[in-house]
């Protein structure tokens, strides 16, 4: 597994080094979209435009959404690409199995992509004047985010195995996640609060906002809920992916496009 991880890490680094314009373009586009929305909101509100820590919460939700999109691309987009190039079947015939290959590939890619996400976050903070905290315990909710994001990626990957083209469905997932991650659902009460704990990545987003935007201490109950949420969605995604793999092999469409 270690050998596979470093092989995928080397592969990802070579691709990023050979196509640097793609990396720079993604960072510029991601930052430009948020800054454009920020300027539009400030223009509409006029001189009274003051967001305070709400701006910090919005920044966290948007950057977190960007990270989730990176993770989803590492699995779902790669499956569609491998199907187009005719190399998808080779991954399923490897000694590691497709699930391990895609999971390790995602972890290797995230190792480098976290630097891109940090660049996006720092640039947005510089442009908007947002001030965020970066406590060491930040790593815990970040791990739960990656677990949940990989779970969603495997769910979309399962659909890609069976239907090959799921780009439009993926767009629906992306904007749905933007709503979940950008909205402070953790501030709700009653049934809405319980529902927020069941939605993917939402508990983790709430913890990140509490730590980085409001400077609160880590709540052990909330982080436990976030870990359970991440594990459940990761297990669900891998389970559905394995089920789709068996169906694709049974129908003889694994290597087709």
TrEMBL record:
Entry keywords, A to Z: Membrane, Transmembrane, Transmembrane helix
Q: Where are the transmembrane segments?
A: 21-45, 57-76, 102-127, 139-163, 175-199, 219-241
Origin: domain of life: Bacteria
- Name of protein: ABC transporter
Q: Which organism is it from?
A: Chroococcidiopsis cubana SAG 39.79
Q: What lineage, starting at the top, does this entry show?
A: Bacteria, Bacillati, Cyanobacteriota, Cyanophyceae, Chroococcidiopsidales
């Amino acid at each position: 597994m270690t050998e596979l991880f470093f092989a995928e890490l080397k592969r990802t680094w070579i691709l990023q080094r050979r196509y640097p314009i793609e990396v720079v373009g993604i960072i510029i586009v991601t930052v430009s979209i948020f800054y454009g929305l920020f300027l539009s909101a400030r223009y509409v509100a006029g001189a009274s435009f003051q967001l305070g820590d709400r701006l910090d919460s919005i920044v966290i939700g948007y950057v977190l959404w960007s990270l989730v999109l990176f993770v989803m691309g590492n699995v779902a987009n790669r499956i569609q690409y491998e199907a187009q190039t005719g190399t998808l079947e080779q991954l399923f015939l490897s000694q590691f199995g497709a699930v391990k290959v895609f999971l390790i590939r995602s972890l290797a890619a995230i190792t480098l992509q976290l630097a891109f996400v940090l660049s996006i976050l720092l640039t947005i903070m510089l442009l908007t004047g947002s001030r965020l905290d970066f406590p060491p315990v930040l790593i815990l909710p970040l791990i739960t985010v990656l677990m949940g994001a990989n779970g969603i990626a495997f769910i979309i990957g399962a659909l890609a195995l069976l239907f090959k083209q799921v780009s439009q469905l993926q767009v629906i997932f992306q904007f749905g996640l933007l709503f979940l991650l950008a909205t402070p659902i953790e501030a709700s009460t009653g049934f809405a609060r319980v529902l927020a704990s069941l939605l993917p990545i939402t508990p983790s987003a709430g913890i990140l906002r509490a730590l980085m935007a409001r400077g609160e201490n880590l709540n052990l109950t909330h982080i436990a809920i976030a870990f359970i949420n991440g594990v459940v969605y990761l297990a669900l995604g891998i389970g559905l992916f394995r089920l789709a793999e068996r169906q694709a092999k049974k129908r003889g469409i694994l290597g087709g496009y």
